Amino acid sequence: MEHLNFGTQLLTLCEIFNEQFFVIPDYQRGYAWEKKQVEELLNDIKHLMDDGVDLKHYTGTIVLSQPDNTSNEYHVVDGQQRLTTLSVVLHVLSTYLSGDEKSNFIKKYLWRGEIGSEQAVLTLNKDTRKYFENVIITEHESSTELATLEAHNRLLECKQVTKKWFITELGDASSLQRIKTIQNTIENELGFLVYAPKEDDETGVMFEVINNRGKGLSELEKVKNYLIYCSVKLKAKTLRKKIDDGWSEILFNLNAAKKIFTEDEAAFLRYCVTVYFSASKNEGQYGYNLIKERFNLDVAMHDAEKRNAMVQALEAFVEFLKHAALWYARLYGRVHNGLSNELLPVLDKLRGQERHASIMPLFLALTIKQGQAPTELARLLNLVEILNFRVYMAKGITPRNDTGQADLFAYAAQYYHNQGIDGLLKTLDDNELDISTEEQALEYRLVYFTQRHSPESKFKQSFVLEQDTYDDFYNWTGIRYFLMNYEAELQPNRTIDIDKILKMRAEGKSADYYSVEHVWASNNRSEDNNRPQDKFQKRRLGNFTLLEFRINSKISNADISEKIDTLYEASSSPDVSHLVHVQKMCEDGRTAIKELEGRRKGKDYYKDISDLLNDKQEKRYIDFATQRWSTEHYFGNNHVLARLEAETVSD
User: Fold this and answer.
1) Would you call 475 exposed, middle or buried from its count of C-beta atoms within 10 A (0-12, 13-18, 19+)?
2) Which position among 106, 415, 585, 632 has the lowest Cβ density within 10 Å, counted as fewest Cβ atoms?
3) Alpha-carbon distances of 392 from 331, 396, 444, 498, rounded to whole Å
4) 23: closest CA among 104, 129, 136, 150?
5) Alpha carbons 360 and 412: distance in angstroms, whole number
6) From the centroid of its chain, how far is CA 253?
7) In a 10 Å sphere around its CB, with 0-12 CB exposed, 13-18 middle and 19+ buried, how is residue 412 labelled?
8) pLDDT given for residue 266 in this prediction
9) What is the residue-wise DSSP string for 355-396?
10) 150 Cα distance to chain centroid
11) CA distance 209 to 216
């Protein structure tokens, strides 16, 4: 392939693939196109066919780089999504060809080499390579190659959408003429601008062009491109290799964490720069720009000492991103290899909370800095879990989801960068405590934050529904997590599967899914018990339990007394709930029913049963919550409470 520049000419797939091999480097993200993008490309092909104009149609840009000592192999720097999709389209097209024509077509676009040692013309990165070759671009699909990553699922969807499109376009007859029209359009009428510089300074320019030409790159992709650009401009080949290898690890671990969408990557980068660069909350929103500012090439290009310092700084930043992605995989993907068992329970609890925006910089600062001290790390992460629940998950505690977020981000950066006890406590101006370590200072700071935003009285009140409100605990986003923790408290020797509360109804099977259910069903006796006092009882926290979906489906709208009796009397049945808090609810419910024994079963009968049961359940729930999410065992708790009380009095 000739050395080309942007805009010189449009090349067809026939010209691009002529005797060339293409590789998606491991530092590139996996296949990310969704059904919509695949259908748009197929619609472009259809429009070209229907237009009947024999002209090249601009389809996109492909940017390649040629590694040293290769003559016909190119790395795909930009355009991999489109090139991968077209390879799938070419594969499906090949299934409609036969004989020598099919053999020659496959050799040109899909597989080359002797039988038994064929090489794919397009090689994907290591996460998707085997799946692509064994399932997607073959007629002999492997029955053992399972989709384990989102990129695998998207590749399979791409193939399915493409096969359906061919069936629609060709109809039942699959006419030879129509096949030829599709083949000619794909091979000769799709036009691409191709740029293929050597691995020299042009590569650095190329990455900056990609970043700034308005293409929809994620912030993380822009950062990768800029770091590679820096390595080339600084003539630092070792750094370039560390970036390539490091990015492969970063993407692998983000995949394992199932954080593969653009917004996930943006959040990851935001948390990382917040900690690493001590960035403000606002600065963290623009991670790519911040990194360009902090790693300014102008000051390092012409001074050997500054150049070396810059190279070392870039290497250290890539290393930080690698560690951060690994802890993402440990938290969200349960990748626990080499991890102390002390940390597993708190990682599960944090994962179950779902809402993490305010605490993730703290999580990264603590894990990366304290990863080799599991006991201390577990203690601090448990405090972070308490803070997150009390401040950001408990109902109605803060007016906004990001209340106090800037403070937490600052604590994370101060702690990570060893800014000392004074740095962590400077806004408190507190010299009365004997604080000797940064860990104690951080504990004190986080306890103060928790108690200031979610004091004991306010936290307790968050579990009580006001009579004149239309709030409904069924809509509380933290209710499943709360009830699962309550169940864990009642069964301390049993491992509670957090995944059973994370699954949504569409994902779960009846045997492995816990749903939040009304004890007094919302639709039960709705014609008779439709008064405000009835609706109030049905919305209270005490009216909710977790139930296995298979059980609730059988009794969902039964009378409250019938539902309690059914659950209670089925204790010896294999279909009964094995959740202890459900059994406690049944015991309290039967006590309430007994108190009303002999009463006529009118409107107030069901309301009064619910009222008695709600009172009992809510007391148990509140007693549990105040112990479970207490800060009393953390450094300086009593001092914090006294200080806050004094501040309240002075106000």
Assistant:
1) exposed
2) 632
3) 19, 9, 19, 19
4) 129
5) 9
6) 11
7) buried
8) 93
9) --TTTHHHHHHHHHHHTT-HHHHHHHHHHHHHHIIIIIISTT
10) 11
11) 13
Task: Return the structure tokens found at 115.
Answer: 């039988």
Q: Strand, coil or helix: what is 526? A: coil
**Total H helices, total E strands in the chain:** 29, 10
Q: Are 455 and 644 in contact (CB under 8 A)?
A: yes
Supply 435's token pair. 């604080």
pLDDT band at 503 (very low <50, low <70, confident <90, very high): low
Helix axis angle, 637-650 to 438-453, nearest 10°: 40
**Both tokens of residue 121?**
């013309």
Alpha-carbon dihedral angle through residues 203, 206, 212, 216, given to the nearest 10 degrees? -100
Pair 353, 385: CB distance under 8 Å: yes
- SS3 for 173-214 is CCCHHHHHHHHHHHHHCEEEEEECCECCHHHHHHHHHHHHCC
User: Is residue 222 pLDDT above 60, yes or no?
Assistant: yes
Report angle CA 583, 586, 588 to the nearest 5 degrees: 115
Span 535-556, average pLDDT: 82
Are 510 and 575 within 8 A, CB to CB?
no
Q: Is 113 exposed, middle or buried (0-12, 13-18, 19+ CB in 10 A)?
A: exposed
Kindly give the pairing relationship between strand 21-23 and strand 10-11: unpaired
Query: From CA 592, how far away is CA 611, in angstroms rounded?
Result: 9
Residue given tokens 């919550």 in the structure block? 625
Residue given tokens 């059980």 in the structure block? 551
Q: Are strands 544-548 and 111-112 parallel, antiparallel or unpaired?
A: unpaired
* Cα torsion angle, 94, 100, 104, 106, sign: positive
Token output for 17: 């693939």
Predicted confidence (pLDDT) at residue 602 exceeds the cutoff of 50? yes
Distance between CA 336 and CA 149 in Å, rounded?
18
Q: Which two tokens stand for residue 228?
A: 């590679």
Confirm if 230 and 278 have CB atoms less than 8 A apart: no
Reduced to 3 states (helix: H, G, I; strand: E, B; else coil), residue 419 is: coil
CA–CA separation, 116 and 463 (whole Å): 66
Q: How many residues does the chain have?
A: 651
H helix runs in 503-548, sequence order: 532-539
Tokens of 562: 């019938």
Least confident of 165-179, 286-300, 597-611: 165-179
Helices (H), 95-175: 99-109, 129-131, 150-170
Residues 361/413, Cβ–Cβ less than 8 Å: yes
